[in-house]
Write a structure and sequence with these properties.
Distance between the termini: 50 Å
Structural class: mainly alpha
Order of helices and strands: HHEHHEEHH
Radius of gyration: 20 Å
Oligomer: single chain
Largest sheet: 3 strands, antiparallel
Number of strands: 3
Number of helices: 6
């Protein structure tokens, strides 16, 4: 028996009395087309366990992303390059990123190069936090991706890279 339909904001389809309650966790389903909602759901589902790791260590997602940029740059980076990279990655305002850099500096996780004020360095505490949270997140990531064929991961990677490229181009349009 079908009840009055309620619009589904994501797909503009109707729900029925046979549908799972809105609060029930999504059950695994047959393959679906990739769209913004599917990508967002995967992002937030995967990010939630990472946030748990970061919370246990007193760090935020924005701080984690910022520390990663410095670590990947070899432990030292020009402040402008750091702001540009993190702003581009998070789609955050520069003022937000400057605030995160301030938090990390105040916490002793980043330091300004005394010889070159425009450069920031990962401190020993910053490197330790980055390495610890990265190792914990790697275990979660391994479990999330376990059993997915390498070919499927490669296709998903290419598709998501293309979507990212197009979204960045769209954002850059006047």
């Amino acid at each position: 028996m079908t009840t009055a339909a309620a619009p589904d904001t994501a797909t503009n389809t109707a729900t029925t009395a046979n549908a799972a309650p809105a609060t029930a966790p999504a059950a695994p389903t047959a393959p679906t087309a990739v769209n913004g909602r599917v990508i967002a759901l995967a992002h937030y589902a995967a990010r939630a366990p990472l946030e748990g790791v970061l919370d246990r260590h007193g760090a935020t997602f924005h701080q984690s992303v910022t520390l990663r940029v410095v670590a990947v740059a070899g432990g030292s980076i020009a402040r402008d390059a750091l702001v540009r990279d993190v702003t581009g990655s998070l789609k955050a305002e520069e003022s937000v990123v400057h605030g995160v850099i301030g938090e990390l500096t105040s916490a002793g996780l980043l330091s300004q190069d005394p010889a070159e004020a425009s450069r920031l360095h990962l401190t020993a505490a910053g490197r330790e936090l980055y390495e610890r949270t990265t190792a914990e997140a790697a275990g979660i990531t391994a479990r999330l991706y376990a059993g997915i064929p390498a070919e499927d991961l490669a296709v998903a990677g290419r598709v998501l890279a293309l979507v990212t490229e197009r979204a960045n181009a769209e954002q850059a349009r006047p």
